[in-house]
Specification:
two-stranded antiparallel ribbon; 71% helix; flat; 129 residues; 3 helical TM bundles of succinate and fumarate reductases; mainly alpha; single chain; 2 domains
Length: 129
């Protein structure tokens, strides 16, 4: 009779072993902040739909230190998430022109350029410029 296969459960800190794993886990954790901010936007739309008094109360809560800290953390997480995604596009979406591939730096650079142009356009439409 053979012995049953018993696999050891790896420790939950496997991502601390290599910097690449740590960056991967950091990127995955940033998606939690992105999701939390989406839920925040749903609450904002709900308070807007509930009427002016509800929306004024919501705007008042935005001035709290906890809300400001959350927004700063969400911004940092969104920037990190976007940057790591743009850096990964050169591997995820290689572009072939004829027999040669477009250099990865051009692919990532095009994404960063599009991000900058769209950000400036949104700021222009918001009246910042």
């Amino acid at each position: 009779m053979s012995k049953p296969l018993i696999r050891e459960v790896p420790p939950t800190s496997w991502y601390f072993r290599h910097p690449r794993y740590l960056r991967y886990m950091a990127r995955e954790i940033t998606s939690l902040f992105i999701g939390a901010y989406c839920v925040f936007l749903v609450f904002a739309m709900h308070s807007l739909a509930a009427g002016p008094s509800s929306y004024e109360a919501f705007l008042l809560t935005l001035r709290s230190p906890a809300s400001i800290a959350f927004h700063v953390l969400a911004l940092v997480a969104a920037l990190y998430h976007a940057a790591t995604w743009f850096n990964a596009t050169q591997k995820a979406m290689p572009i072939q022109l004829g027999e040669e591939f477009v250099p990865g730096n051009l692919i990532s650079g095009a994404h960063y350029l599009a991000w900058a142009v769209l950000s400036i356009a949104i700021l222009f439409l918001a009246g910042v410029f």
